[in-house]
Amino acid sequence: MIAKINLKKYLKNLNEELNELELNFSKIKGEGKRKNHQDNINNIKSTINKVEEKRNEHGEVVDLAASMFLISDQEIIYLYSGSKEEFLFLNAPYLLQWEIIKETIKRKIPRYNFYGIEDLSDPSIKNRGVYEFKKGFNGNVIETIGELDLYLCPKEKFKYYLKKIIKKKWGIFDIINYQVKLEGLFWK
Prior knowledge:
Layout: E1 2-6, H1 7-24, H2 31-58, E2 61-71, E3 76-83, H3 92-106, E4 112-113, H4 129-135, H5 154-170, H6 175-187
Parallel strand pairs: 3-4
Antiparallel strand pairs: 1-2, 2-3
């Protein structure tokens, strides 16, 4: 599933919303309401500036985020996703999750599985972002027996441990590019 946006259409909608807010501003009574309304106007202006800048850099239609799911009669499992960091302000990952949740309901599938989160009982866990994102959809944490990686091929086991060492030493990196480089250097 891919979330795309047409920035030209989005800018048109934002400008229409801005015009409506500015037209209604004089009709608002009360200092608190006027301040709130002015804040909304300022937020839309700021978003318009960001989107115009992004449109100049990336063109009219942009892929914002993508997710991969496994679908069965009993559950939909969220496997992987990714998004363009510079477009996070548009919240495309949330849109993808909402769309697959609606699809789960439409198909009458009894369970949507966000899949894994970090072990929350471990106090050394610093990055709780994945957990907080998934928790934001108001689900329940169900602890299962976990997972096991069984490598039947020695080169796959080697690649796994090499990635782990590199990640530990240099921090987070682009795994996809790294895998391509590894395969290109050693195993193609």
